[in-house]
Every structure is written in C-alpha cells, then in structure tokens.
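Hi Y.,

Following your request, here is the sequence exactly as I used it, all 321 residues.
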Amino acid sequence: MTLAGCTQQTDDGSGGSGDGSGDGGSGSGSDGGLSGTIDVAGSSTVFPLAVEMRSRFREEHPDVSINIQSTGSGGGFQNHFCPGDTDFNNASRPIKEAEQQLCSDNGVEPVELTVATDALTVVANNGADFVDCMTVDELAQIWSEGSKPTTWSEVNSDWPDEELKLYGPTDASGTFDYFHEAVVGEDNEMRRDYQATEQDQQIIQGVANDQYALGYLGFSYYTNNSDAVKALGVDDGDGCVEPSLETAKSGEYSPLSRPLFTYPAKSSLAEEHVAEFARFFVENSTSEDIVAGVVGYVPNDEQRMEEMMNRLETAIEEANA
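Below is the corresponding structure, written out as tokens. Let me know if you'd prefer a different format.
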C-alpha cells in the first residue's frame, strides 16, 4: 500500500521526458535567466494547482524544467520527498509525525506552506434523483469498516434497495486521510472494499457510469466534471450546505473544507531556481485568476500569504547560511 501511486500521473510541462531525472542544478538559461530542474511529487488534489503555477512560472523562466508527479500525499512523502528524491511534496493534509521522522532520518527538513483551501466533495450519479444531501452520520456509516452497508436502503430507508458502489482515493492520499478523520473519525477504521485509485478522473468515471455509485474527491475535479456527476450537499447538524468556493471560504461547508499545502525541502531552497519557484507559488496563492478561476480552490487571503512568505524567506535564508 505504501507504493500505491508511485506510477501515477506525471507532468513535466517542458517537452522533456518527465521522468524526474534532472540533477536539480541551477545556472544561467539561454536568456541569462534561471535554469535547472525541480522535482515535485505528492497530492493529486494539489496537482492541478501546481501544474498551473508551473505553467505561469515558466512563462518568465522557460529554462526551468519542473517535473510534477501525482502520487498521493502519503505516497509522495514516503517514496519520493523524505528519501530526498524530490524538491517539493504537495499535500492535502499536514505532514504526519512518522513522515517527519522519516524525513529527519534522511536529513530532509520540510517547510510547510499553505497554498489554498479545498472543499472536499461527495459526488453521486446524475441519475440518483433520490439523494441531494447527506448527513455526516450517513457518510460515516457508509464509509466505516464497522458498519459497511451494502445497499443504500441500509443507510436510509427512503433510499432504494440497490447496491452501493463506492469510489475513492487510496490510503496513500491526503484526501483519504482527511475524510477518514473528519467524517469516519480517528477511532474508527475506513472500509477498504471499494474502488480505490489515485486517479481522480477514474472516480468521476466510475460514479458517472453507475446510477447507484458514490465517491469523494477534491472540489477542483468536480468543477471540471460538473456535467458528468452531481455534488451532494453535506449536513453536519445545521442544515444542508453545498460545496462551493464561498461556503468553503466562510467555513459553512463543515467539516469538509480543508487547507492545501506544498512542502519544499529546506536544502533545495539553497538553489535559486527552487527558491524562486517557491516564492512564485506563495505569492500567487492569493490569485483569484489562478487559484479560483482556473483551478477551482479558495485562494489565500493577504494575511495568510504574508505569513507563508515570511516562513519561506526565513527558510531560504537558513538554507543559504
């Protein structure tokens, strides 16, 4: 399970092989600007945001090659970042204590940077006219190993006596971890008898192809496929709230709104091209155009961005000391 996601989506955006084999060294490009290779792994949820940031950054620095792999938050930390093979790890939940220890054992010091807010989204088939909203308790019952219902009617007698077909991320994913903690609860186990994948598009396709399917994933993937599936509202006891940028930003969409992160390795920040990409990522985390308009997440406010920039500049200074 640790290796789940190691062969997942990769995008280098440079016309190269995308195999992450660059040496990471920096120098002068053909225009006298920055050059070098940056390797990024981690969260499938943060992946589209990182890809868009890379695209905008390379408009200014075309000689910087940035390889981005979608491996899942945990898969990225365990198999790429903490062993020292990548410069950044994207994550849809905070780094775990065991991952911190693994990084420390390998001399890697992660720098936590919040780059956006997501509204984790529960999706159903467009033909599922019997459900538009679920309570947190119903979601917990569906996804808990302790209850593990097999039909919709076992959860709610008003729902059809049809088999539940479930789709979701693997346990290498930060989305899995967040859903586990926020919905099922840390003291309960998540069920494992569902179609697990680190390819969010496969979750969309699975739900779109079965009237009685259910899944969950990051809001960005729903907004880019809103014609294929429908988003369900979530009721945490104060009424049904639909996922949106507005409800995630206001905190109404509870408990499924969550921060998104990127973690540069402090040692990598000694390389000018890596430091500049980190600065670009943080500076543009407030961009309505990039974060909300193109990708579909809630941007950082100015206060959060400045806090992250101060943290980053301190790390860059220490890396170059």
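The radius of gyration is 20 Å.

Thanks again,
Q.
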